[in-house]
Design goal:
Length: 244
């Protein structure tokens, strides 16, 4: 049994930051539809009046200024893609803290600060419940840190190792054999079946293929007839000699 490697690297997720820039840079960003947020100022002069009249805060009736179209000279506005906000209205949808010039992540028309986005959407390890920032493995469609994916009994790391499970819990081969496997009547070692191990069962006894031999001459009895002699098994030839 194996676990799949998680290829997703949360640290590579897009984090956008805001910048205060001049009008020429704003014009280029708009024309090129750049994936940046623009922090600019409501200007008092006549040149800016037409631009200010186009403004409408993306929060609409939830605008923190009380009027989505309100513009005050000297205050700032935020623009991202085709939407605009008053500076203090440009805040995380979860914690409501203003983004300012910090990192943010847009998702489905909502804006998240980096911390809230991670809390809400990041992949978390099923064992420790902490965010998996890189790497990790999946087992039964559940994500684990590589260091958290360990044997249920001995805590040995199972990432990249062969293992088996019982009651949906993973075990290394050694622990599974010691705890749950049948034991060979001859050598008393576990019969795990891992790696294609073959074994013989007769009544309530079990043997590894290599251990299933005549107690007298040590010839292999796999696929052959045999005779029980108390707790021993012997081949027909040795049984004849013993009778004679």
């Amino acid at each position: 049994m194996s676990a799949d490697v998680l290829s997703d690297d949360f640290k590579s997720r897009l984090h956008l930051t805001t910048k205060t820039v001049g009008q020429e840079r704003i014009r280029r960003a708009r024309e090129n539809n750049e994936d940046v947020a623009i922090l600019s100022m409501f200007l008092p002069n006549a040149t800016a009046e037409r631009e200010n009249k186009k403004f409408c805060c993306a929060l609409r009736d939830k605008c923190l200024q009380g009027d989505a179209r309100k513009t005050i000279a000297g205050t700032k506005k935020m623009e991202y893609k085709t939407r605009q906000w008053h500076e203090k209205c440009f805040c995380c949808v979860v914690c409501k803290n203003p983004i300012g010039t910090k990192s943010f992540i847009p998702r489905e028309q909502e804006i998240y600060c980096a911390g809230c986005y991670e809390d809400k959407f990041a992949t978390r390890c099923v064992k420790c419940n902490k965010i998996i920032t890189q790497g990790g493995v999946t087992y039964k469609n559940e994500p684990w840190h590589r260091e958290c994916f360990t044997c249920t009994h001995c805590d040995t790391s199972l990432a990249g190792q062969r293992f088996t499970s019982r009651d949906d819990k993973p075990y290394c081969a050694d622990c599974f054999g010691e705890l749950f496997a049948k034991r060979c009547t001859s050598c008393t070692k576990p019969i795990t079946g891992i790696g294609g191990t073959r074994f013989i069962s007769f009544e309530d006894r079990h043997w590894h293929n290599d251990c299933f031999i005549c107690a007298q001459c040590s010839a292999s009895l796999v696929g052959k007839g045999f005779i029980t002699d108390g707790q021993d098994i012997i081949c027909p030839e040795c049984a004849k000699q013993k009778l004679m």
